[in-house]
């Protein structure tokens, strides 16, 4: 898996099948936020995740290879805490899944989230928390820690 080294990347390895990893990533409200509208399971599904009332991100699933790859295109967003509220628009979140024996490696690249981006530091922290924390917990303990609406 080769990626632009400046795009944000995050990986985890879990004792789960590629099928379970794929299903868990698609079950966005179990690990990212429960404030989710739309569908997250199929190619061309669109969904919106929201945080704390103001912040939202709208996605379109543009590629889906079961147990291998998922690509979410950001079609719109509003990031309330930064000056460029639409900084994620037209970026892509790329999930790559590789089963190795009884473990599965999940690699996420947020293409376009680069160190010069205004939200890079806070978004890096958030992605790490959601993937290395909540998604990992969902796959290893059966329960994630998604953000709850306030």
3D structure, described in words:
With 150 residues, this protein is α+β, with helices and mostly antiparallel strands. Helices cover 21% and strands 37% of the residues. The protein has two helices and seven strands. The protein has a seven-stranded antiparallel sheet, covered by helices on one side. Strand 4 (55-65) and strand 5 form a beta hairpin. It is globular, with a radius of gyration of 14 Å. The termini are far apart. The model has no long low-confidence stretch (mean pLDDT 95).
DSSP helix fraction: 10-25%
Task: Report Rg.
Answer: 14 Å
Q: Which residues form runs of ≥5 with pLDDT under 50?
A: none
The string of secondary-structure elements, in order, is EHEEEEEEH
Output mean pLDDT: 95
What is the general shape?
Answer: globular
Structural class: alpha+beta
What is the straight-line distance between the termini? 38 Å
Tell how many strands the DSSP assignment holds.
7
Helical segment count: 2
Main β sheet profile: 7 strands, antiparallel
Query: Strand-residue fraction?
Result: 35-45%
């Amino acid at each position: 898996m080769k990626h632009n080294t400046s795009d944000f990347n995050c990986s985890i390895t879990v004792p789960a099948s590629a099928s379970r990893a794929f299903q868990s990533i698609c079950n966005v409200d179990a690990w990212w936020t429960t404030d989710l509208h739309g569908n997250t399971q199929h190619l061309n599904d669109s969904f919106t995740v929201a945080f704390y009332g103001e912040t939202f991100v709208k996605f379109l699933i543009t590629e889906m290879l079961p147990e291998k790859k998922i690509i979410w295109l950001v079609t719109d967003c509003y990031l309330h805490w930064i000056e460029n509220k639409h900084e994620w628009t037209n970026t892509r979140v790329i999930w790559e899944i590789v089963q190795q024996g009884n473990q599965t490696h999940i690699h996420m690249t947020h293409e376009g989230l680069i160190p010069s981006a205004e939200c890079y530091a806070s978004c890096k922290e958030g992605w790490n928390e959601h993937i290395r924390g909540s998604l990992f917990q969902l796959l290893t303990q059966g329960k994630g820690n998604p953000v709850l609406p306030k």
